[in-house]
Structure formats: C-alpha cells, structure tokens
Design a protein that fits this description.
It is a single chain. The longest helix is centred in the last third of the chain and has 88 residues. This protein has three helices and no strands. The chain starts with a helix and ends with a helix. With about 150 residues, it is an all-alpha fold.
C-alpha cells in the first residue's frame, strides 16, 4: 500500500496517507489488545482455574473488553478491505489511462507519418513544377529564336 501511495498524484496523496496511518494504528492497537487479552486470559486460567458455569466468558469486564476488541478488529478489517478496494479501483483507472495514452501515441505517430509523406510528396511536386517551368522557359526561348 505504501508503495502504491508513493505513485499517486500529490493532490490526493495526503488523503490516502492519512487513511493508511489510521489503518496501521488500528491494526497495531488491535494486535496489542489481542495480546493483552490473551495474556489476561492465560493469567486468569492459571490463577483462578476455569471460569464458573454461570459466567462462561469470565468476569463481565473481560467479556466487555473482548467484545470491544472484536469490534475494533472487525472495523479494522472493514477499513483494510475498503483500502484494498480503493487500491484496486486506482489500479484499474491507471490501466485505463495507460491504454488511452497508448492510443493517443499511436494516433500521433500515424499523423506524423502522414505529414512526413505529404512533405515528401510536396517536395517532389515542387521539383516537378520547377522542372516544368524551366522546360517551358526553354521552349519559349526556342520559339523566340526560331521566329527570327
């Protein structure tokens, strides 16, 4: 993602950088929360034994934190999926732009070839006209000489 952001235009780059930082922060926070919850559960199991049958998920505060962690993790996953979707859309748009640029380049090259051919024909035509004028001048001189 960071590499793709580097290739974006400067006008939209800050938006995506902010999103990426936000997602990274959320992921780091979720990892830390998951690690903390895992450590607390392991500590609870060691010190207190298995939870009672009335509270299958442990004390209410642990359950609340676990649910909050799951919520944050699902939000982070959703944001990450959105970021991937945006990256794919950006890549698709970039591909379309490259296709259009290639078509324009081919049009420019074809136009250049046509102009070059026209220029060479124009040059040949100008030589032919010059030769015709020169020949006509010679004929005119000969007719003038023949009349005397």
């Amino acid at each position: 993602m960071e590499i793709e952001i580097q290739g974006l235009p400067r006008s939209i780059k800050p938006q995506y950088q902010a999103r990426l930082r936000s997602v990274k922060t959320d992921i780091t926070r979720c990892k830390k929360l998951s690690k903390d919850l895992h450590t607390q559960i392991a500590r609870s199991d060691l010190l207190e034994g298995a939870p009672s049958s009335d509270e299958p998920y442990g004390p209410a505060s642990d359950r609340t934190r676990l649910l909050a962690g799951v919520e944050v993790l699902s939000n982070s996953s959703r944001r990450l999926a959105d970021s991937q979707r945006i990256a794919l859309e950006t890549e698709e748009q970039g591909t379309d732009i490259l296709v259009h640029l290639r078509e324009q380049r081919e049009q420019i090259e074809n136009t250049r070839d046509v102009v070059g051919a026209f220029h060479s024909r124009k040059t040949c035509t100008m030589c032919l006209v010059a030769a015709t004028i020169s020949f006509a001048a010679q004929i005119a001189q000969l007719t003038v000489l023949l009349e005397y």
